[in-house]
């Protein structure tokens, strides 16, 4: 499974500085996930269950 994610703090201008913790301010987490045929439903689209699983994973990282 090809999965990449990064965590950084979001500044007020929308930029993100990776690895720098500014306390309890806003946090931006990004995840890049390759969609494979096993993630698709019978119509060839990403299944809602898989999308929710990825959303839950990224929410836990934030």
UniProtKB/TrEMBL annotation:
It comes from the Eukaryota. Residues 1-26 are annotated as: Disordered. Gene3D superfamilies: Hotdog Thioesterase. This is Uncharacterized protein. It comes from Cirrhinus mrigala (Mrigala).
């Amino acid at each position: 499974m090809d999965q990449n994610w990064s965590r950084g703090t979001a500044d007020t201008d929308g930029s993100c500085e990776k690895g720098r913790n500014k306390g309890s301010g806003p946090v931006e987490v990004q995840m890049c996930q390759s969609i494979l045929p096993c993630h698709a439903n019978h119509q060839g689209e990403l299944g809602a269950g898989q999308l929710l699983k990825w959303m839950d994973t990224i929410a836990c990282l934030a």
